[in-house]
Amino acid sequence: MPAPGPDDADEPLMLAYAAGRAEAFDRLYARHKGPVFRYLVRHCNDARLAEELFQDVWTGVIRGRARYVPTAKFTRWLYTLAHNRLVDHWRARGQLGFVSIDDEGAGDGRDAALALPGARTDEPETRTAAKEVGARIAAALAALPAVQRDAFLLQQEAGMTLAQIAELTGAGEETVKSRLRYATAKLRAALEDLR
Fold first, then answer.
1. Which of 11, 44, 76, 133 holds its CA 20 to 30 A away from the CA of 94?
2. Model's pTM, two decimal places?
3. Who contacts 149 (Cβ-Cβ below 8 Å, separation ≥6)?
4. What fold characterizes domain 10-194?
């Protein structure tokens, strides 16, 4: 079996990693570290906690490599690990929902979430404008109910389909569709003046 190339699909890379090719893991990690971290930090509002959960997710990937079977997309499996780790964390703390990223005392989480938008130029005006837009987007995301935010982030960050989100969250496809529709409408309304 030839070594996986940089443009290979995730599933063969994971199988190559399971077969002992560490460079395949490096490619998977490089490809998915940003979106997975953003998914976690936007839910828990604490960069240090998100980093801990992030490490747990990737440890789960490492531990699960021998059992990995590509019955679905790798991203679905990866975000299932991330979602379940978040749920376990909130259950352990006695919290049923996800924490908003604009709660008081956000500290590191808010700063990390606002710093997540794409590359910025070195011009101070551009950085300031980007930070303001990032803050508006973060606030709009935070204002969504947790189930709508989760469905939206799973679709946008993980690229999951309605069926995949429904299976992961245990909600019906029509429920997920409604959550996405409401989330999109609320985000558009909150950010209308940015168009």
1. 76
2. 0.61
3. 42, 43, 98, 141, 142, 183
4. Arc Repressor Mutant, subunit A (1.10.10)
